[in-house]
């Protein structure tokens, strides 16, 4: 069905990453499908939250995240080309920008069950669904599943 798939990842939830990978593989059809794994580092969104986080630490975090992404989905079918992408900034903005740049056919991402806070601020998944240039598959997980 899809040849250009973007999968935003939260590396703190390994089980979800594997599940998203399986779903993305099932959506890929034909030969030479591209699977783009995206990690968005939000450390610098609000510098006040972590003022000691310097550029060296940021670069180390970037390298660790890329290495972790490459190792997570090592058993993929041969028809799937995997690339890893690391971005910094607000998650929803970076997901949408990356989807536009890649001309993604579909975005596959996790979302938590909505709580009271999401009614006031909204969620990354909600913003992505609203503004995405392509189809978006949301895999729903409750709080206890994360």
TrEMBL record:
Q: Which InterPro entries match?
A: Rossmann-like_a/b/a_fold, Universal_stress_UspA, UspA
Q: Which Pfam families match?
A: Usp (PF00582)
Top-rank taxon, per record? Bacteria
Q: Per the database record, which ranges form the UspA domain?
A: 1-140
Q: Which family does it belong to?
A: Belongs to the universal stress protein A family.
UniProt-recorded name of the protein:
Universal stress protein F
Q: Name the species this protein comes from.
A: Amphritea japonica ATCC BAA-1530
């Amino acid at each position: 069905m899809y040849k250009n798939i973007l999968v935003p990842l939260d590396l703190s939830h390994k089980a979800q990453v594997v599940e998203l990978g399986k779903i993305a593989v099932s959506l890929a059809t034909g030969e030479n499908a591209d699977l783009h794994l995206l990690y968005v580092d939000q450390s610098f969104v609000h510098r006040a939250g972590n003022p000691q986080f310097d550029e060296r630490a940021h670069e180390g975090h970037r390298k660790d995240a890329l290495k972790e992404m490459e190792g997570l989905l090592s058993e993929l079918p041969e028809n799937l080309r995997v690339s890893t992408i690391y971005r910094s900034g607000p998650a929803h903005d970076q997901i949408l920008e990356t989807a536009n740049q890649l001309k993604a056919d579909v975005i596959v991402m996790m979302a938590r069950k909505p709580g009271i806070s999401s009614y006031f601020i909204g969620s990354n998944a909600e913003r992505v669904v609203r503004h995405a240039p392509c189809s978006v598959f949301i895999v729903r997980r409750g709080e206890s599943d994360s």
